[in-house]
Amino acid sequence: MHIEIITTPNETLKESGFGTLKACNSVLDAIQRMGYSVRLNVCETKDDLDAVVKRKPGLVVLAVKYIPVNDKDELREDDIWLSDYFAQHRINFTGSSREVLKFDSNKVLAKIHLTNKGIKTANYFIATPGQYNNESELPITFPLFLKPLDAANGNGIDDLSFVTNFTDYESKIVSLYKSFNQPILAEEYLDGREFTVAVIKTVNEKLIVSAIEVIPPTSTNGLRILGAQAKKDDSEKLIKIDDNEVKSRVTILAIDAFNTLGVRDFGRIDIKANKNGECFFMEANLVPGMTDGSSYFPQACNIAHEFAYDKVIELLLAGGFARASSTVPPNICPDSDHKFLTAI
User: Fold this and answer.
1) Domain boundaries for CATH 3.30.1490 within the chain
2) Looking at the domain 123-188, which fold is it?
3) Phi, psi values for residue 2, rounded to 5°
């Protein structure tokens, strides 16, 4: 079976994805070591995608959600969603459909959907500059946490995202609106621990769940905020969850969110707790970072289950392999132990 990886120049994209070309090449190398013929495509136009379709790959690995047609800094209606494009051309692809990926691109849509299904998420409201005149008009009391509606990788998040008064609130709202040209997500501030959970759906519909704790560095203001700079510097710590009760709460919430959103193949669910240990869904990353040695998804799989990077990629693509005409990699035995790697 021939496999093709699809990415696009994404240095300015604020959306989530596997990462830079370095990450995509790591995925390519892992697939080659599995014995497949594989090609990496940096696509910028529909013509680039048409060329992929003409080669009729058995599986395309989608390293980004869409290809921007015009403005690379914001999602537009005329952008080419890769899941839609390849589904229309009857080409087998990894990951979720566009209808599900919208929960990744818009944090509020995910919150609304899960809240309606009884899954806990932090209280929130959507804000624009000048919408509220004073503190008494705000739907939620301080402290609040402010971030862009659809940005990934900590973009727009820093110490000033944590606000305790109306002056700081309005200043950060204006700053974010100018930078991202979209309404701002204002959430109640949760002052507990932070977690991320890599979830992979196996061929037999069971889930491999890798839950870990994320400990951001302490800022000059004494806060632990997981912003763009911390992620860029890799200054946060990723650790195993030793408390079984906490691990169970985090795992169950991640599974509920994953299933309720209708995620296919894989996804990463971010969770945060309050000071009482109560856990809340924060966001879903459905085309998660795959940089070897630093991205949360492969790191979580390694910390929780001691999976090597190549093993993570093998499991990640298992659903796509199963949908293809050939389900067994050329140099992996059908009785490979990966079919037994399941969790609750």
Assistant:
1) 123-188
2) Dna Ligase; domain 1 (3.30.1490)
3) -95, 135
Q: Would you write out the chain's pLDDT as a tens digit for each of its 344 residues?
A: 999 999 998 665 556 699 999 999 999 999 999 999 999 999 999 999 999 999 999 999 999 999 987 655 455 678 999 999 999 999 999 999 999 999 998 999 999 999 999 999 999 999 999 999 999 999 999 999 999 887 666 678 888 899 999 999 999 999 999 998 889 999 999 999 999 999 999 999 899 999 999 998 887 666 776 655 555 556 799 999 999 999 999 999 999 999 999 999 999 999 999 999 999 999 999 999 999 999 999 999 999 999 999 999 999 999 999 998 544 444 443 333 333 343 43
| Long-range interactions of 256-262: CB distance < 8 A, separation 24+ | 256/119, 257/114, 257/119, 257/281, 257/284, 258/199, 258/207, 258/284, 260/113, 260/114, 260/117, 260/119, 261/100, 261/103, 261/110, 261/113, 261/114, 262/96, 262/99, 262/100
As given in the structure block, the two tokens for residue 53 are 């379709």
In the numeric block, which tokens belong to residue 145? 């946490």
Q: Is the dihedral of CA 80, 84, 87, 93 positive or negative?
A: positive
CA dihedral 292, 298, 303, 307 (to 10 degrees): -90
Task: Read off the tokens for 199.
Answer: 């979830």
Q: Left (φ > 0), alpha (ψ -120 to 50) or beta: where does 7 sit?
A: beta
Does domain 2-94 bear CATH number 3.40.50? yes
Q: Which CATH number fits domain 191-340: 3.40.50.720, 3.30.470.20, 3.30.200.100, 3.40.50.2300?
A: 3.30.470.20
**Distances from the Cα of 205 to the Cα of 30, 43, 256, 318, 322, angstroms:** 24, 32, 14, 11, 11
Counting every residue written for the chain, the total comes to: 344
